[in-house]
Amino acid sequence: MxxxxxxxxxxxxxxxxxxxxxxxxxxxxxxxxxxxxxxxxAILFTSNRDTGNRSRExxxxxxxxxxxxxxxxxxxxxxxxxxxxxxRYIVATRAVEDxxxxxxxxxxxxxxxxxxxxxxxxxxxxxxASYLTEGDSFSPDGEWIVYLKRLENGTLDLYKIRRDGTExxxxxxxxxxxxxxPAWSHDGEKIAFDYSDAELMRNVLKTMDxxxxxxxxxxxxxxxxxxxxxxxxxxxxxxxxSPDDQWIVFERRVKFTIESPENFGSGxxxxxxxxxxxxxxxVDLSEAGGHGDRAEYLPSYSPDGHHIVFGxxxxxxxxxxxxxxxxxxDADSGLMTRLTNDSWENMGPVWMP
Length: 353
What we know:
The chain is built from three helices and 24 strands. By secondary structure, the chain is mainly β. It has a single domain (2-24, 127-351), classed as Methanol Dehydrogenase, Chain A (8 Propeller), CATH 2.140.10.30. The strands form six sheets. Strands 3-2-1-24 form a four-stranded antiparallel β-sheet, with no helix packed on it. A four-stranded antiparallel β-sheet has the order 4-5-6-7, with no helix packed on it. A hairpin with a 6-residue loop joins strand 14 (204-209) and strand 15 (216-219). The chain is globular, with a radius of gyration of 19 Å. It starts with a helix and ends with a strand.
């Protein structure tokens, strides 16, 4: 899925961003694994800014990028995160067991779904550790989480589960296809996700009712060349709804030069928006905003619908000018503002309610 290759890219990019002067320390303090969320915080994201290694912790910041606050102290690898409307519970996709080489937690290890209670400072794994589980989207009432699960036989489908870990419910059953990146609409009626199968050989954007019925195709980029060197299929990934549920934003690869792939092997990825009923034209926000030379991922709308926050990987002609950082852009014009600006890997942003 998108998050899998996304962190492969980040691992590669880490080689160009770090030097021996980065600090290390003991950040696995069992007495303080969860911090507090400031009232002013607007965006959650993941970063290795304090660990100085491959581990990714969860952080929060204000809408202007200020007041960056560390939320987790685990020395584990956080992939993607989401938060419920009450801002009490964080759902996190984590790697907590070192299941594959190289040594240490990273994108190669089995990830699982966790719920973090910021009020009582408790953490709980929601799914069997034997399977890969991944998700970041709450239902609007905060009671359910939608996620993907891959079984040992490779079957990958979508499920939902209550926040307390009960009533796991399978939503899709497609042995010959894969679904991923599920996102709940704000009215609670729909779930957006991406879908691919052996005949399509690309990801198309779909929606379904919250019980798994009434599946509709919303966006299909059409036949595109499959590039084995690129590690992933073409098409749409990581849908996210606007607050009024009228739009869905997503990312799609638009360029990949086989001889010398852009942005440290990822190519150019743009963020698009499309009407949630599939009508009208698709808008390329990255191109409109003048930042189409980057790999841009994981878009998320602000609660007022005016802005979209996203992660960006950029390989500049001068290596020191390259970055893995978080930006926000105008939801109509695509014009952007940089929110993080340092030598760390800052990614996986999500706007909080």
